[in-house]
Amino acid sequence: MKRRERMLQDLDQEIRDHIEMATQDNIDRGMSPEEARHAAIRKFGNVTLVKENSREVWSVVWLEQLLQDIRFALRMLCKSPGFTAVAILTLAIGIGGNAAVFSVVNSVLLKPLNYPKAEELVSLHQIAPGAEGLADFENGLLLSPSMYVTYAEQNRTFQSLGVWITGTANVTGLEEPEQVRTVAVSDGVLQALGTPPGVGRWFSVADQIPRGPEKVMLSYGYWQRRFGGDRNVIGRNILIDSRSREIVGVMPKNFRFVDSDFDVMLPLAFDRGHLILAGFGFHGIARLKPGATIAQGNADVARMISIWMDSWTNGPKTNPHIYETWKITPMIRPLKQEVIGNVNELLWVVMGTIGLVMLIACANLANLLLVRVESRQQELAVRAALGAGRGRILRSLLTESVMLGLMGGALGVGLAYAGVQFLLSIGPANLPRLSEITLDTRTLGFTLLLSLLSGLLFGLIPALKYAGPRTSLALRSAGRTIGASRERHRTRNLLVIGQVSMAFVLIVSAGLMIRTFQALRTVEPGFTDARHLQLMRISIPDSLIQEPERVTRTQNAILDKLAAIPGMKSAAFVSEMPMEGFDSAWDEIFAEDKVYEDNTIPPLRLYKYISPGLLQTAGTRLVAGREMTWSEIYGLQPVVMVSENFAREIWDTPSAAIGKRLREVPMQPWHEVIGVVQDVREKGVQEKAPEIVYWPALMKNPFGPGPTQVARTVTFAVRSERAGTESFLNEVRTAVWSVNANLPLASVRTMADVYGKSVARTSFTLVMLGIAASMALALGIVGIYGVISYTVSQRIREIGIRLALGAQSGDVLSMILREGAKLALLGVFIGVFAAFGLARLMTSLLFGVTAHDPLTFASVATLLISVTLLACYIPARRSTKVDPMVALRYE
Amino acid sequence: MSTKEQKERIELLQGTLDLLILRTLLLGPAHGHAIAKAIEFNSDAVLQVEQGSLYPALHRLIKRRWISVENGTSENNRKAKFYRLTALGRKQLVRETSKWDKLARAIGRILRPTEEEPS
């Protein structure tokens, strides 16, 4: 350090001496003193640069220069607060939006699931292409208990394996009766997930024995809510579905069961002695052995399927190998994929659009900076003349833009935080891993990187253009007359064209979503006036009311009480309303007058149990025949209703179906079709309406034991103008509890909520793309307006001459507008191609409209061109007001 | 400075300036201008020290402790900084010189293969 000081102190003097000596030499060679001095100075070169280079030898010079540049940049930015504010705000919005969306992408798609070694976890998905009707199953073919037993005992590729199923149960004995969300797990599930309990212990193998002591585990949330986090809860008993169960453990905070939250976890105690082949109702989960691949797992399961068919039966006189025709095929998937589901593309589309907005913002800023640097040319020329190298000027210009980027990024983090909250509030409730979304360090890192990169990106264009040595030119012109060089405009025009084309892509995507939404709204879902249809789910467990007919009587009594509420139009119940998202029941349905060849099975059909009056309550049309009556239900009359598409498939017309007969299994009596019901979009508006069979709520039990079977868990649907209001719901609760005080009401919501949830994905995408497209449009307009008005200001003199020479103001106007139109048209032209390519990525998000919808493309093009023309019109109009005398005197 | 002269001049190869400075200082301490002049003179004015690079190079050599600096008086009785070769610099010069010889021979062999053959 000392040496350095000493060295540098005298450098000035040294250089002066050096030049003097050189001058003397030159004089000795016979030059005139003045000439000699000039020659010496010329030979020595750039004094400042020499000093700087010498200093550079000694120091971490880049750091010093950086600090210098930062100080300078801050000074420059403070000097033009308007520009700085606009730039930072633009950036903050762009970066904030990107950071917010990235935090979602990161939390949902990128982060591993919250289990130890989560990459080993798989879901035992399997399909059965040979079982017609199964293809509609979102879940493929679920596992039967016997499959689970076979897989658990015979597999070679899994560390542990189990099955699970979600449901609901009534908890009584603690304050009000409450319906809780349950997950029932077999042995092996907790071992596979591997998350240790927060308090107490897991279920043991002994807890999984049928008719053993009954145990339960709690979720952290339920433990906190119901027991205030009391650790002494272990060993206590609670009443679940009127059965006393001992609490053995509590799962830790942040533990989610695959993709669902639960309140209590129950053991699935299968009775091995009574298992049959069928009963495909359970989700399979497993942990692969270290190093084992999914392909090996699939091969392993495929091998075990034939073992399974050899080991079990559906009862005497049945052929266990009938399932060979189903072609059951394992399709093991990573558990993460199971959890994430289909939001993958959605999130990437949103990320892509918000990224495009960022690019447009960068283009805008680059244009702003171009203008700014242009007006600073003189300053730059002076700096170059004083010895600043090209690299040095480049660096200082880039420092300025990167500073802008960082400041925008800092503000953007704040916006991102707000953005995430906003996103969560509008986010579809079915967005997986919603609770895991946070602004973590990876997101902050991403934001920092984005800020730096965007600063470099929009800074580089003007910096590269102007850092070059054009000293003499710039100094002489004093930055005025030579303003309108063609090449300079080319960059600006290219940026605007890029902006317009990117905006086009975004607006087209938003337009396609609007068209999708329109198409969805024209679909008849199979119910009407969803806002005034109140739903609630009530379950009557057999531990509360054993006898099936009494269950129906109770449900009937509830309906009667509900009907007495003021303003009630009608009330009914059904095993599930459309789009509710509960696991639906499917089975083979045989028609009496159809011939089934040996060993073939009719397609699986969705079936429901309904009460009289449901069609009227829900607003579902009766296409032919009539509804069932209460006396038919209590009389166990063999009647049934079917959906219109089912009737058409089997008997061609709805009216032909009336009087025909159906059954589910051979031991069941034939049921007569008495009514045909309008098709219902059971699985969501975007999904084809499935064929549905409607059984009476109480009927002869086709399977045994017991003579009758009844729908114990049903959705009550009531129609009233007062649906959804608190006072109405209070009256509804009172009515239900006046029948039986032990019945909790669950999933209390209107049909409109259910409908909204089922289109949440679409509306979420629509909102996101709408926001992105409006931002793009606004930025695009600002961009083209800026360029045109700048062009006009540069051409004032030319315009003045034109006007002086007799050009009409209309000519000038159209000349300027033409220029704008040229840019807009080119932008739209490129945009059309880009959108053609990109919109295809959205295909899975669209409904009722193709990705190349000509109407959308045409109207967006029209919109964009007219808006840009409007943006050009204002500066163009100003140009015609130019007074030729003033313009010419401008020099 | 005629154009002809300029054509005959050769820009110094990267890194060779350090070597030339060390070699010049082997004859005794000198100040900046004298070093530049000596290099030009001894190369019959073929090598031009780009003066912008002379002082940074001197500083670089000081930093590496190959030369040292001291105050002295120039031939026309002015105070000036004199640069002196250190022991470390001397060793470096030997190393660099032999490296340079090798390089020059190698390049020569490639450029004039036939002339080298007989010897």
Structure description:
The complex is a heterodimer of chains A (891) and B (119). Chain A contains 29 helices and 26 strands. By secondary structure, chain A is α+β, with helices and mostly antiparallel strands. With 119 residues, chain B is mainly alpha-helical. Chain B has six helices and two strands; from the N terminus they run H-H-H-H-E-E-H-H. In chain B, strands 1-2 form a two-stranded antiparallel ribbon. In chain B, strand 1 and strand 2 form a beta hairpin. The N and C termini of chain B lie far apart (40 Å). Residues 1-6 of chain B have low confidence and may be disordered. At the A-B interface, helix 1, helix 2, helix 3 and helix 4 of A face helix 3 and helix 4 of B.
Summarize the entry for a quick read.
The complex is a heterodimer of chains A (891) and B (119). By secondary structure, chain A is an alpha+beta fold.
User: What count of domains describes the coordinates of chain B?
Assistant: 1
Please write the string of helix (H) and strand (E) elements of chain B. Answer: HHHHEEHH
CATH second-level architecture of chain B? Orthogonal Bundle
The parts of chain B where pLDDT drops under 50 for at least 5 residues are 1-6
Structurally, how many domains make up the residues of chain A? Answer: 4
* Major sheet attributes of chain A: 8 strands, mixed
Specify the biggest β-sheet of chain B: 2 strands, antiparallel
